[in-house]
Design goal:
Blueprint (H helix, E strand, L loop, with lengths): L5 H13 L4 H20 L1 H5 L2 H5 L4 E10 L5 E12 L5 E7 L5 H17 L6 E6 L8 H15 L8 E4 L6 H15 L20 H18 L9 E5 L3 H12 L3 E6 L3 E4 L6 H10 L15 E4 L10 E4 L8 H9 L4 E3 L8 H9 L3 E3 L1 H4 L2 H14 L6 H25 L6 H20 L3
Parallel strand pairs: 3-4, 3-5, 6-7, 6-10, 10-11, 11-12
Antiparallel strand pairs: 1-2, 2-4, 7-8, 8-9
(2Z)-2-iminopentanedioic acid binds next to strand 3, helix 5 and helix 14.
Length: 448
């Protein structure tokens, strides 16, 4: 780990003390704090107003019981979370994750990252995250509906288009957003489209939101490559995961002339030298909600390995798009030895601190998640704009807006890194650029 700035040492110690056992949250805070020394040296008002201490403390944390009944009549009790972290720049905004691993520390790490990511988009959105330890795998549509309705029956009172606007994340897509929107509408008697994003196209959703995170990550990679006189054309890529982010990252990579040779899910890895057949992946994961192992049954020449490590596969572009801490220092060493040129985080915090350091020391172009995967939430903010004006934009126009936003995020990270004497370090650039926008707003809004 980098040596933490002296003045920030106490701040981090206090975070550890106040939030025991929340390893992922500690990791996310440490990563940001490690970058901020030069910024607070330049802005004594941030120290005087205790901006970092305030940013590390969520404005509000909601934990609630979610009871529901399965198809056999058995009662289940899950735990629901919403951590409303920071609203200096706009209403709380961030996804909901349904996965058995969800706990308060994970929701807090995600909510904390979201503050800076949302600031980087330049759009008026604060930071939040939520979810539940509910496991949707193997559940029927009826069970999913009962769970979503129970979850929203508690959460609705905390939401609103000017208050808190959730969206999807792991285990939450258009189906779940629809069921939650339906329950919100029923309870409140309001057709309030701006209360959730990631909605279906026929009931207030935006074109490109489904594709946005994956596409945005690839646009960010293109910015990194182009600023070094390179392009995606003809490059070999590997993308972990096979969910929403991974699928649309693969789609844009392929469109831009790269060959994607591998993807994965939590069980194993598919390798397809000829290039992943994306229509088949979509059929298996989006339509059938099956496992990625099904791919090899329908595609000759492809192989599948249970429990394999995707980062052992030769590639020039590596995009971790599954989950946190999925790419370790050892994995990074393997990718570097195999000649990786660029890595961008489609997932949130997928690379461990050792992994990030290894890439940076080896001179690999590295795009941190809070910059590289900001296209999803940015397009959510575009959905909110369309909802507020009761308008809907074309695919081309919305995609162009997304491309411009990703370009401006890259420029902000790059220029901020240069301004602070850290040229090429997009981690420091992203952290400081995101932080300073929030910090300036917090100073302006007073001690609230
Ligand atoms: P999905 O639920 O659509 O897909 C998740 C994928 O990751 C699946 O292939 C899943 O495999 C795999 N995965 C999940 N948990 C684990 C685990 N513990 N170990 C290994 N693999 C795992 O989620 P998304 O694509 O929406 O999200 C992926 C990542 O992108 C997350 O980090 C999320 O926070 C981040 N993100 C998402 C955005 C969005 O707009 N959706 C925006 C920005 C970031 P399996 O099916 O086997 O569980
Ligand atoms: O991590 C993320 O940025 C998301 N899951 C998307 C959040 C959003 O509000 O669109």
């Amino acid at each position: 780990m980098a040596v933490i700035d002296e003045k920030l040492d106490d701040v981090y110690a206090e975070v550890l003390h106040r939030n025991p056992g929340e390893g992922e949250f500690h990791q996310a805070v440490r990563e940001v704090i490690d970058s901020l020394g030069p910024s607070i040296a330049k802005h004594p008002e941030f120290t005087r107003r205790k901006i970092i201490q305030r940013i590390c403390e969520p404005e509000r944390q909601i934990i609630f019981r979610v009871p529901w009944e399965d198809d056999r009549g058995e009662v289940h009790i899950n735990r629901g979370f919403r951590v409303e972290f920071n609203s200096a720049l706009g209403p709380y905004k961030g996804g909901l994750r349904f996965h058995p691993s969800v706990n308060l520390g994970i929701v807090k790490f995600l909510g904390f990252e979201q503050i800076f990511k949302n600031a980087l988009t330049g759009l008026p959105i604060g930071g939040a995250k939520g979810g539940s330890d509910f496991d949707p795998k193997g559940r029927s549509d009826q069970e999913i509906m009962r769970f979503c309705q129970s979850f929203m029956t508690e959460l609705y009172r905390h939401l609103g288009e000017y208050t808190d606007v959730p969206a999807g994340d792991i285990g939450v897509g258009t189906r779940e957003i629809g069921l939650m929107f339906g329950q919100y509408k029923r309870i409140t008697n309001r057709w309030e489209s701006g209360v959730l994003t990631g909605k279906g196209l026929e009931w207030g959703g935006s074109l490109v939101r489904t594709e946005a995170t994956g596409y945005g990550t690839v646009f960010f990679v293109q910015e990194m490559l182009e600023s070094h006189g390179m392009s995606l054309e003809g490059r070999t890529a590997v993308v972990s995961g096979a969910g929403n982010v991974a699928i649309y990252a693969m789609e844009k990579l392929i469109e831009e002339g790269a060959t994607v040779v591998a993807c994965s899910d939590s069980a194993g890895v598919v390798f397809d030298q000829a290039g992943i057949d994306l229509d088949l992946v979509k059929q298996i994961k989006e339509v059938e909600r099956g496992r990625i192992s099904d791919y090899v049954d329908r595609r000759s020449g492809a192989t599948y390995k249970d429990g394999a490590c995707i980062w052992e596969i030769d590639c020039e572009i590596a995009l971790p798009c599954a989950t946190q801490n999925e790419l370790t220092g050892r994995d990074a060493e393997k990718l570097i030895a195999n000649g990786v040129v660029a890595v961008a985080e489609g997932a949130n915090m997928p690379t461990t601190p050792e992994g990030v350091r290894a890439f940076q020391e080896a001179g690999v172009l590295f795009g941190p998640g809070k910059a590289a995967n900001a296209g999803g939430v940015a397009t959510s903010a575009l959905e909110m704009q369309q909802n507020a004006s009761r308008d809907s934009w074309t695919f081309e126009y919305t995609e162009d807006r997304l491309r411009q936003i990703m370009k401006s995020i890259h420029t902000a990270c790059d220029e901020t890194a240069k301004e602070y004497g850290q040229e090429g370090n997009l981690v420091i650039g992203a952290n400081i650029a995101g932080f300073e926008r929030v910090a300036r707003a917090m100073v302006a809004l007073g001690l609230v």
